[in-house]
Design goal:
alpha+beta
Length: 282
């Protein structure tokens, strides 16, 4: 008997371990997929500002995930602050459940406000529309809960309804994050285009002539029979290194100026990059 009991206990622990891996592994995989998508959205918006497809940069999964950390970090801070405010406000809202539920019941009107903002200002409206929809869905759902509380009806909402509302809020939150990621990518590209002086200026040495053209780019032939590198190019700025390539840009990326160039160079021994020390002002 004791052997059977021990066997059943061992089997139960094995099942529990499998269940634990299932419930822990799934969120990790989902979280990684979301971070990958947010990083891709941010990088894709940035690439569009340079007139290329994001696939040109050959970024790995690690590159994309790391590029989404900043977006998700600030979003999580915002969500935690909202949760803290909600915990402080929830008792007061329950005490005034009748009037609060009537006000929150009008939250769905924010959807129309969001669409009106898109018509009035497409750039701002595209970013804020999912925020309005998220607040409208959350406010309407919480208003219905307060309405039941005001009627002293403690019967819980149907499970299917609760799950559907939860799924809707998750999708809306996903939409908000994706919009923020795109806005962050556009902002970074805009800042880069108008503040190239803050980037690392690079000198490119090459065995062969590269014929790099662009605003501010100079080509110098290096004399000497024993030189490994025959040409030096100045006036380039490092954008990033990803895959097996360096991506550099020239000056002239301001909106409406065609002089800017995005230059892609292989990361091999035919190319050497040098970066001067940054200028430190007292």
């Amino acid at each position: 008997m004791s052997g059977d009991a021990a066997g059943r206990g061992s089997e139960r622990r094995s099942i529990d371990a499998v269940d634990l891996l299932k419930y822990i592994g799934s969120p990790v995989l989902i979280g990684t997929a979301l971070l990958f998508y947010f990083g891709w959205s941010r990088s894709n918006a940035q690439a569009e500002r340079f007139g290329v497809d994001v696939s040109v940069f050959e970024m790995s999964t690690d590159d994309l995930v790391l590029r989404s950390i900043g977006v998700v970090f600030f979003l999580m801070i915002g969500l935690l602050l909202v949760a803290l405010v909600f915990l402080r406000a929830d008792p007061w809202l329950r005490e005034h459940a009748g009037s609060a539920s009537r006000i929150l019941g009008l939250s769905w009107l924010l959807v129309f406000v969001g669409f009106a903002l898109v018509v009035a200002n497409e750039a701002a409206g595209t970013i804020l529309l999912p925020v309005f929809v998220l607040v409208a869905a959350a406010g309407t759902a919480y208003g219905a809960r307060l309405r039941r509380h005001a009627r002293r009806d403690e019967t819980p909402a149907p499970l299917v309804q609760t799950l559907l509302i939860g799924a809707l809020l998750v999708v809306m939150l996903f939409w908000v994050t994706e919009r923020i990621a795109r806005a962050d990518g556009n902002a970074l590209a805009f800042e880069l285009q108008h503040n190239l002086g803050a980037r690392s200026r690079a000198s490119v040495f090459s065995e062969e002539r590269l014929f790099i053209e662009g605003n501010g780019v100079t080509e110098t032939a290096l004399a000497g029979p024993n030189n490994k590198y025959s040409y030096r190019y100045e006036g380039l700025y490092l954008l990033q290194r990803s895959g097996t390539k360096y991506f550099l840009i020239t000056d002239g990326w301001h909106d409406g100026l065609p002089a800017g160039r995005l230059v892609m160079l292989p990361d091999d021994d035919t190319i050497r990059l040098e970066f001067p020390a940054p200028v430190v002002f007292p």
